[in-house]
Design brief:
Low-confidence stretches: 3-53
Oligomer: single chain
Helix content: under 10%
Distance between the termini: 50 Å
Number of helices: 4
């Protein structure tokens, strides 16, 4: 009965918002926008982004590799209800409970990193990087405020301010704060991101400078999971969630990732503008220089006992742990780019591009184990350097066909022999027929440092005989924007796959790095379709994966995300969507989690497959000129198919939760 009352109250709230929401609103800048979809919206002239385009435009580092592509602000409400980085429909994750805690991809998405890697990535979802920074050209001061609240369970605040101090010089600041306390004791994720950025372009558009200073603090409290393993089983005597006993009473992981970034480019020789459709100069010769300094630390802190042996007893102290890894990194990168194209042409065709460059990386890698009296029981220091050659070649046959090849090869240093070779091609068959995207890459990567060496209070190993992990990939995608259809296939062949496995030889839940010697094949098929039936919209996404090594490569065979909503414009100006989302993945042998290392691991001898049922959310989202608003009720079907669910063994996910979010943009 209580569930029915909550659902009725939610829909009454939605109706109230529709009738009361009669003020001047507008959306925030969306994340992860595809260039083609933005162009389509701009060309169609139906989105309010056309109004703001004359005042604010933006670019990112990924949009300035050749010429600088400027885009208008996107004012759509697409996916606004899925604000958490863990709940992105096309990139689902598993986690230890809620936003701000450790997570990893649900589907197989191997990293394309090469070179030195410390190996700590479970909190990467919450960090800002130089590639995430948006650089603006603002004729008027621009401010965007974004706030989400779910009471004391979860809160999020984001602020962006940017303005031009001169016509060709912009400065700005990002401030992000997320605090998710969760339902259970010690389930809090607390993240802070601050970034100061600037973009300067010379009056003749030959010289550009992008600079940023980024400071990330990510604090994930660790409870070692709940003591009860049958929380959602019939007959369990339920008590308040925050009163459920947990295994660790005073533990947490603290990651700090700070970056100073500077990139400069200069166009040499002739500059073409007649063929440019994005209001930016097209160079014929370009010189680029990038300087980056990173100072990262990864710390696990624990006090108190561990009566249920979530981790092995401390080697130096059973009650106190303070283990940390520190990495300082300096990168210098120089690239020369050459473009060959016809002069004074309205359509770019037969364009040749060649890049040649070199990158020098220096790393200072340190381990510290600190006792309760603040003396060290472990202090290890390593210095590495790598020299990488960079190359790229591209040929645009016409505006419909292009081909690109990128090469990264480490020639000298600690990770000599690592490489990433990647080829891509796009073929436009026609506006109604769609386009084809082909891709392939081969990768050779040195094992992350944490696999080779780790000396902490709870785990210690020293391995030097792991082989490089190799990945070969082929991909095919067919995209038809007119009919909202996208289908693709990917094939991965992975050799020397590295993972963490359970080692309970001493009677404790210890972990050890392991390597699969046999090759692993995986094929993945993705299908995405958007249907419209009058004012009703249905969006479907399906991913199917098949591997010959399920015992090691833990991933579900099937995943789907579906969104159904009513799309209408009220009062001729208030665009509103009311509907629900449903996500589901098939059962598979799930991961376990180690708090001391923030690593996910598997038990090959006794795999555990957790039950899997659909999870549904209902939502309302609307926009009107200056703001976006949404109301969402997560896990609305709790109690219907399941009392709760896990994505990581023994770590319960959030219960049903009502959330409210609003964003507001200012242009003066």
């Amino acid at each position: 009965m209580g569930k029915v009352v909550r659902i009725l109250l939610f829909f009454l709230l939605l109706l109230g918002v529709n009738s009361a929401f009669a003020q001047d609103l507008k959306t925030s800048v969306g994340d992860n926008k595809e260039l083609d979809s933005v162009r389509n919206k701009l060309d169609a002239g139906k989105d309010s982004v056309v109004f703001t385009a004359k005042y604010i435009r933006y670019t990112k580092l990924s949009l300035s590799k050749d010429s600088i592509v400027l885009l208008p602000l996107d004012t759509s409400t697409v996916n606004i209800q899925n604000y958490s980085p863990l709940l992105q429909p096309l990139h689902p994750t598993i986690s230890t409970g809620n936003m701000g805690l450790s997570a990893r991809p649900l589907l197989y998405e191997p990293s394309k990193r090469i070179g030195f890697d410390p190996g700590f990535h479970s909190l990467d979802y919450y960090a800002l990087t130089p590639e995430d920074i948006i650089y603006y050209q603002a004729r008027a001061p621009f401010t965007s405020l974004y706030f989400v609240s779910a009471g004391q369970k979860e809160q999020l605040f984001r602020a962006i301010h940017s303005q031009n101090v001169k016509k060709n010089w912009n400065v700005g600041v990002n401030f992000n704060r997320a605090d998710s306390k969760g339902f259970y004791a010690r389930q809090r994720g607390d993240n802070l991101n601050v970034a100061v950025f600037s973009w300067y372009q010379s009056p003749n558009k030959r010289y550009n400078m992008w600079a940023s200073a980024i400071f990330n603090t990510m604090r994930a409290y660790e409870n070692g999971s709940t003591e009860a393993t049958d929380l959602f089983e019939p007959g369990y005597d339920k008590i308040s969630r925050d009163a459920e006993p947990v295994n660790l009473e005073a533990s947490r992981n603290l990651y700090r990732k700070n970056t100073l970034f500077l990139k400069q480019t200069y166009y040499v020789g002739r500059i073409d503008t007649s063929a440019n459709e994005n209001n930016g100069a097209l160079p014929t010769n370009k010189v680029s220089y990038t300087l980056q300094y990173d100072n990262d630390s990864y710390t696990f802190y624990k006090t108190g006992s561990d009566p249920n042996n979530v981790m092995p007893p401390g080697i130096n102290n059973t009650e106190f742990t303070n283990d940390s890894t520190h990495v300082q990194h300096i990168k210098n990168e120089f690239i020369y780019s050459f473009f060959l194209r016809a002069k004074d042409t309205k359509v770019i065709k037969n364009e040749l591009k060649v890049d040649a460059g070199i990158r020098q990386d220096f790393y200072k890698h340190q381990y510290f184990g600190v006792k309760a009296d603040r003396t060290n029981y472990e202090q290890s220091k390593f210095n590495y350097q790598n020299t990488t050659v960079l190359g790229a070649a591209g040929y645009r046959f016409s505006s419909n066909i292009d081909f690109n090849l990128d090469i990264q090869q480490i020639l000298q240093g600690e990770n000599a022999g690592d490489y990433l070779y990647e080829a891509k091609s796009k073929i436009l068959l026609g506006k109604s027929i769609g386009r084809i995207e082909l891709g392939a890459y081969v990768q050779n990567q040195t094992p992350a440092a944490i696999f080779n060496y780790y000396h902490g209070n709870h785990y210690q190993w020293d391995y030097q005989d792991f082989k490089n992990t190799k990945v070969a990939n082929l991909s095919f995608n067919y995209i038809n924007d007119k009919y909202g259809f996208n289908a693709g296939a990917k094939y991965f062949l992975t050799s020397n796959y590295l993972y963490f496995g359970l080692d309970n030889a001493n009677g404790y839940n210890s972990i050890l790095p392991q390597q699969e010697t046999a090759d692993i094949s995986l094929i993945r098929i993705d299908i995405q379709k958007k249907w419209r039936f009058g004012k009703f919209v249905l969006e479907n996404y399906i991913a199917y994966q098949k591997t010959d090594k399920n015992s090691v490569l833990r991933t579900p065979e099937f995943y789907t995300y579906n969104s159904f909503y009513f799309d209408n414009v009220f009062f001729k100006v208030l665009k509103t969507n009311v509907g629900f989302d449903v996500r589901y993945n098939s059962e598979y042998a799930n991961y376990f989690y180690s708090p001391a290392t923030a690593q996910f691991y598997i038990d090959t001898n006794n795999p555990v497959s957790l039950s899997s049922r659909p999870v549904a959310d209902v939502f309302l989202k609307a926009n009107l000129k200056r703001a976006n608003i949404f109301v969402k009720y997560d896990f609305v079907n709790q109690g219907l198919f399941q009392k709760g669910y896990y994505t990581v063994n023994r770590y319960p996910m959030q219960d049903a939760l009502l959330k409210f979010g609003v964003s507001w943009n200012f242009y003066d």
